[in-house]
Amino acid sequence: MAREKYKTGLVLSGGGARGFAHLGVLQALIETRIFPDVISGASAGAIAGALYCDGYSPKEALKIMKSESRLNYLRPTTPRYGLLQISGLAKILETHLQAKTFEELKIPLFVAATNLNHGKIEYFSSGELLNAVIASASIPVLFRPVVIHNDSFVDGGVMDNLPIKPIENLCRFFIGSFVNPTGYQKTFSSLIDIAERTFILNLYKEALEKSKKFDLFIGPEELVHYKILDTEKAEEVFDVGYRTTISLIKSRGIRKIFFPAGKEKK
Description:
Order of helices and strands: EHEHHHEEHEEHEEEHEHH
Number of strands: 10
Structural class: alpha/beta
Largest sheet: 8 strands, mixed
Low-confidence stretches: 69-84
Shape: globular
Number of helices: 9
Helix content: 25-40%
Radius of gyration: 17 Å
C-alpha cells in the first residue's frame, strides 16, 4: 500500500525564528521513541528539517543556528526586491550542511517553495539542496527571491505553510508542528512589523483547516510572545516546543497510536 511506504511523517511549518520550536518538538519525539521516517517542511521548517535529515541532533542544530547574531542573519539591503538580506542564514547552512543534494540526506526531505513566476507551490525532494531550503525561507518583501532554474522562488508558506501534501499518501501516521499562533498584538512599530503580522495571519487559517489530518498536531500558543525575526530567544523557543510536545504525548495517549499494544521501537 502507498500509505505504508513510511511509518511516520513529520510536517514542519514556516515561522521564522519561531521555528526553533521545531527542534524542541524533534527532541521531545526522540526522547519518547517516536522517530520521523520522512519530513516535509516550509521556510523555518525546511531549515530544521534539512539539518535533522542531514544527521544533526536537535540540540546540535540549535547550536548551529544560534552561531550567528540577529544582525548577521538580517542585514538591511537596498529595497528593490527585499528589505533584508538572508546571507547570514545562507552562510550557516552552506558551512554546516554535509549533504549537497537531497539524495545525500540520511532521512528523506520535501521542501516547499513558492514559484513567483508561475504562481504555484513546488515541492523539492531531489537535486541541489541549499538553494531550495534558502528559497523556502525567503519571506516575500522582507527577503529577495531565490532564482532556481530561471524562476524566482519565495517562502513556501505563501501557498503551503504546512506542507503535508507531498507525503499525504506515503505515511501511516502524521505529526504536524505549527509555530504561528496569532493572538493579540497592540501596536506595530515598523513596516517590517506590519509585514510580519500580515504574513502570520495569512498562515493561521490554513493550519486550522489542516490540523485534523494529523494524528498529533503541535501548535504552542506560547509562541505568540515571540517575534518571527527575533533569533536571540532561540533556547526559550526550543523549550516551548519541547514542553508542549511532551505534554501532548502524555495527556492524549499519543504513544498508544504510534506504539499499539506496547510495541515500541527500541
